[in-house]
Amino acid sequence: MTNKVSTHWKGNSQFESDNPSGKTLFMDTSEEHGGHNSGLRPKAMMLSSLAGCSGLDVVSILDKMKVKISDFRIDTYGELTEEHPKYYHTVSVEYHFYGDDLNEDKIKKAVDLSVEKYCGVMEMFRKFANVKTSIHYHNS
């Protein structure tokens, strides 16, 4: 399977990129680096992709397990190398679950399945970064 994404320069440091879903997004850099801060930053989008990939897995698995949660958030942190080309050498993925009487065993199983088996973006990150994960339960 091949995915195609077209990215078009819109002037200055701005780019517009499409997606196989037909949606588009804008990328830019900070004013300090010559941009207008008008779009998403490319490296940070990689962290969003990681969280989105794993999050989609987790909610799907929890749904199949009939596990109820009231809210779910993933905080993802990436530490860049000092030298160019700068890339994320260490990434932390924090899974936060909210609800009444959370089923911690099933939630952990869902996260583990995503991290260890299903999330392709997670596997890609492991090729260049030390990826750490943690789960936080917030019972009401």
Runs with pLDDT <50, length 5+? none
Major β-sheet annotation: 3 strands, antiparallel
Distance between the termini: 43 Å
Cα radius of gyration in angstroms: 17 Å
Tell me the quaternary state: single chain
- Give the number of helices: 3
How many extended strands?
6
**Helix content estimate:** 25-40%
Strand content: 25-35%
Give the class from helix and strand content and strand pairing.
alpha+beta
Q: What is the average of the pLDDT values?
A: 97
Please trace the helix and strand order, writing H or E for each element: EEEHEEHHE
- What strand line-up does the widest sheet have? 1-2-3
Inertia-based shape: elongated
Could you characterize the architecture of this molecule?
With 140 residues, this protein is an alpha+beta fold. It contains 3 helices and 6 strands. The strands form 2 sheets. The chain has a 3-stranded antiparallel beta sheet with strand order 1-2-3, with no helix packed on it. Helix 1 (42-64) crosses helix 2 and helix 1 crosses helix 3. This is Redox protein. Residues 1-40 are annotated as: Disordered. Residues 1-22 have a biased composition (Polar residues). It comes from Meridianimaribacter flavus.
